[in-house]
Amino acid sequence: MTETRAYHHGDLRRALLAAALDAIEEVGPAALSLRDLARRAGVSHAAPAHHFGDKAGLLTALATQGFDLLAQTLASAGDDLLAAGVAYVDFAVRHRAHFEVMFRPELYRAGDAELVTARERAGAALRSGVATLPTSGAPVDTDRDALAAWSIAHGFATLWLAGALPNRVGGNPRKAAQEVLRRLTR
Amino acid sequence: MTETRAYHHGDLRRALLAAALDAIEEVGPAALSLRDLARRAGVSHAAPAHHFGDKAGLLTALATQGFDLLAQTLASAGDDLLAAGVAYVDFAVRHRAHFEVMFRPELYRAGDAELVTARERAGAALRSGVATLPTSGAPVDTDRDALAAWSIAHGFATLWLAGALPNRVGGNPRKAAQEVLRRLTR
DNA sequence: AATCCTATCTTGCCATTGACAAGATGCCGC
DNA sequence: GCGGCATCTTGTCAATGGCAAGATAGGATT
Questions:
Q1: Can you give the residue ranges of the HTH tetR-type domain (chains A, B) (predicted)?
Q2: Among positive and negative, which fits the CA dihedral A128, A93, B157, B184?
Q3: Which of A124, A172, A179 is nearest to A150 (CA)?
Q4: Which one of A147, A159, A181 has the shortest CB-CB distance to B150?
Q5: What's the mean per-residue pLDDT of chain B?
């Protein structure tokens, strides 16, 4: 939203990030071209460098944005583990570009301060979603349980995005994810 | 093994694939440079093109090799689901370069004939490992169970490779994977 | 109002890369 | 010995990332 019409002097930074999301959905994060972004935004080929330094800088900004969005998404999904898992998969599918960058740290500056805090925020949201696991009998190892939940949601999302899943899984990721995630929670 | 010393006229193809594995472990599959591979192999910058056509061709060969290796690995892991899961994660860690390419189909020709058969072979090995799920009571949906098992193993492997796991998980992927995968099988 | 100042953006440049074309080299069968 | 073919080299071009130097403009200071 707020598609402000001013690049030439205005919010170029925002426009470039938006263009990057489009481009990544089309060709993937690796094939991203700064010059292509500049063309999409209608500015010169060196304009992006001023806002992000280099390509890694731009992807760092994108990853930070992504972790913030994920934290927000998980928080509003509530405390139910199954719902949180579905929200995680849904996030990956709906914000594919963000998600693909976030988990490819070799493409950005993983030590960047803002990024680190955003990632920790997302991590906290993730753990709080798992804290409500049904403690059915056996001694619980929350860390391992959290990791298992994260793994199954992340794995399903990744396989979905990679197009690795058989056609039979169908076109509704939320439904399919729910059926899969249920295997863990029961 | 069989580090034959003949490139200039010899098994350049094999040497290039080996060099590619090294390079990918160093800089990731996206930053792979054909010219760098040529330098590593001691040949001219255009030599790789003859064997693989282009970069996608080389990565297709690598992915095919990877799926074959995975099929072989899963087959020799036996019929136990937990063992198969651990073998899957172990494969990802030990053959990181192969694994990273295999699940990034935008980098290679996913429709290539040899690749398709290799991938199907790996898929079959995967499913046969899941077929021995403990049918404890409830009506079993094998497809969904298989998908859940694949998801949790794949997710753990992916998170491990991305360096996303907390330090506490430790340096032994097999052990950590086993503890996580157990959450699903019990 | 004139001036400086700084953020923003442009132009120009260079090394690297992927891909292609054309030519050289050497092996193998006849 | 000779032709043919696979293999490899040299040369070239467009695209890209990144750097340097310069242009432009809006705001603050005086």
A1: 10-70
A2: positive
A3: A124
A4: A159
A5: 90
- The alpha carbon dihedral of B186, B178, A123, A150 has a sign of negative
A8-19 average pLDDT score: 88
Q: B134 or A71: which carries more pLDDT confidence?
A: A71
Taking CB atoms and an 8 Å cutoff, what residues of chain B touch A27? Answer: 106
Taking only Cα atoms into account, the Rg of chain B, rounded to an integer number of angstroms, comes to 18
Task: Give protein residues whose Cβ lies within 7 A of nucleic acid chain D.
Answer: A 9, 32-36, 45-46, 49, 53-56; B 7-10, 12-13, 38, 43-47, 49-51
pLDDT score recorded for residue B9: 60
Residues A58-85 have pLDDT tens digits of: 999 999 999 999 999 999 998 889 999 9
**Chain B nearest CA to A12, separation (Å):** 27
What pLDDT, on a 0 to 100 scale, did the predictor assign at position A78?
Answer: 83
Amino acid at A105: P
DSSP 8-state code for residue A169: G
Instruction: Check residue B169 and report its DSSP letter.
Output: G
- Share of residues in chain A with pLDDT > 90 (%): 77
Distance CA A144, CA A33 (A): 40
Which residues of B are less than 8 Å from A30 in CB distance? 29-31, 107
Average pLDDT over residues A134-152: 77
Structural domains of chain B, with CATH: 1-53 (1.10.10), 55-131+139-185 (1.10.357.10)
DSSP A137: S
Q: What is the dihedral of CA A171, A91, A99, A150, to 10 degrees?
A: -100
Tokens for A114? 């803002």
Q: What is the pLDDT of residues B9-27, one digit of tens each?
A: 678 999 999 999 999 999 9
